[in-house]
Amino acid sequence: MSPTLAELTEAELLRRLARFAPPNQLSDDTAALAADARPLLINTDVLVDGVHFSDATTSALDVGWRAVAANLSDLAASGAVAIDGITVALVAPGCTSWDWVDGVYQGISAALDQYGGVLLGGDCSKGEQRLLSITALGRLGPLRLHRNAARPGDVLVTSGPHGLSRLGLALLQDDPSLRDIALDPSLHNKAIARHLHPTPRFDEVQQLLACKPDHLPWRAGGTDSSDGLLSAVAGLCSSSGCGALLQRDQLPVAEGWPEGPAWTDWCLSGGEDFELVLSLPEAWADIWQKCIPESQRIGRINAEAGVIRWAHNHERVEAGGFDHFSQP
Amino acid sequence: MSPTLAELTEAELLRRLARFAPPNQLSDDTAALAADARPLLINTDVLVDGVHFSDATTSALDVGWRAVAANLSDLAASGAVAIDGITVALVAPGCTSWDWVDGVYQGISAALDQYGGVLLGGDCSKGEQRLLSITALGRLGPLRLHRNAARPGDVLVTSGPHGLSRLGLALLQDDPSLRDIALDPSLHNKAIARHLHPTPRFDEVQQLLACKPDHLPWRAGGTDSSDGLLSAVAGLCSSSGCGALLQRDQLPVAEGWPEGPAWTDWCLSGGEDFELVLSLPEAWADIWQKCIPESQRIGRINAEAGVIRWAHNHERVEAGGFDHFSQP
């Protein structure tokens, strides 16, 4: 029978967590990283029980994996080429079982094993609600992808289909609106896997760095689609003082994705697909797309500051979006 | 009338928070730090409403200051000589007023203005309970203070008195056990100030680096007393495989500190004084103490692994300690 956190002394909890870090890593007040000639990239993300995960849909192992993957996705979308590691602040009620915590750290370790980096340190506290706050540290390659570096004339491309994570969540929640819809079984499985086990796009960033045409400067707009595809495009546009035209017939959806307004909305604003959304000169975009089979060209950046329109009818693109504080 | 967080769009919240960071600092998925020849030190601390602070005792401004000071204290106690900055994950219910958040970030800014570093980035989410998870980044000087670097024969010294923060908390809570005690007014005020406005000991670390006798190597054990003086000594001993003898008549208490077992216990395990606790060769300790008026020599490290005794009677030193998950 697993003890609860309240039943563990702080020393015993630390001893159990130390298993997930390199030897002696957690024995000082701080972690240290050796000096490195590359700039450091830093990102902090918080995942809250009932907001970003729940026992109904997500195992402890998947909570840990998703927390790390979400963080590392931000590093990838900024141009990181190596991961130093993460710190983890864990807050949980005293009645939380150690087994759950153990599972979360197993998921964290699995993601770090996959993408690089180690558990550098962290903190634990009791609290009313379970949550993880993760800070990820990595090293920048030759190109910093900025939200404010999109330019009129650029092509908008993304590394993969969107809406899958939202569909996966709906399937895990047994959403009644899906009951009468015959989904392709491979789409069903892909959606659940995408929701539980997202992939930060480091390989696709490496391809981007490797395929830049020599005549182009190191300049590209970029972000990830953690808050949804449309939100990512809007972020690029507002930070860059640009607008965008999106191709309705080139929305990045998975094979077998149904038609209809709700499905378009999930593609545009489902969120948590963690794909790269890039604003690139056309020549660079063309070469990159040849290297990334699931990539999709979705539109073009223009000079109409802050406005996103459909290319076919010039109407504004609207979608639900995602608000962190309002009630669901 | 201040809006609540639920009444602010995510974009508006970000716009308001961006005031506390350098221009455009919060406009990308990550923060970047330029390459630096010095190793990086990293620390993450979480402060939870009802566990580490409460409206009854702590203003929003002081919550922000304390959160930063607690984090920076860990950097100081590891040998940091410069602060890059912090990331802040803020979790709060949607009904939280913007004024409270604004106050917290003002306190954060005040501490960063005082000690160096900037708001690098962060994340916000709704949650049932207010909390802050802060990750601080700084640069290591010539000496990494390690918990595992105490050696038998070292002198144990601390940068200042202990128990003040615990007394300050009791005063702010109007603790009935204090009602019949005539406290010196300057002790009263000092205790409250210490609780609300702790000071990371960067100056004392600089002094330590400046005064090392030439014949000694760069080796010193060190930690901070965030979890209490005895816990700090115990951490040094257990990580270093040593023991300690403490001088009962040299406990580091403030002027006017009352006598009695409860007062000794607060000195030993009150916590949150954020002083340096160092294990140094005697010659180095002597010179350092001459530079730090409030410093106190509290005992000596010996070879009795993991055991802390009183020097006068060789009985084990016992104190309540601090457990993060058990109920108060």
Tell me what you see in this structure.
Two copies of one chain form a homodimer. Chain A is of the alpha+beta class and 328 residues long. The first copy, chain A, has two domains: 11-140, PurM-like, N-terminal domain (60s Ribosomal Protein L30, Chain: A, 2-Layer Sandwich), CATH 3.30.1330; 147-310, Alpha-Beta Complex (Phosphoribosyl-aminoimidazole Synthetase, Chain A, domain 2). Helices cover 32% and strands 22% of the residues of chain A. Chain A is built from nine helices and eleven strands. Chain A has helices at residues 10-18, 60-76, 98-115, 164-172, 185-196, 202-210, 229-240, 261-269, 282-291, and strands at residues 31-33, 40-48, 80-92, 118-126, 131-140, 155-158, 221-224, 243-246, 276-280, 296-302, 308-310. In chain A, the strands form two sheets. The first copy, chain A, has a six-stranded mixed beta sheet, with helices on both faces. A four-stranded mixed beta sheet of chain A has the order 2-5-3-4. Strand 2 of chain A pairs antiparallel with strand 1 of chain B, so a sheet runs across the interface.
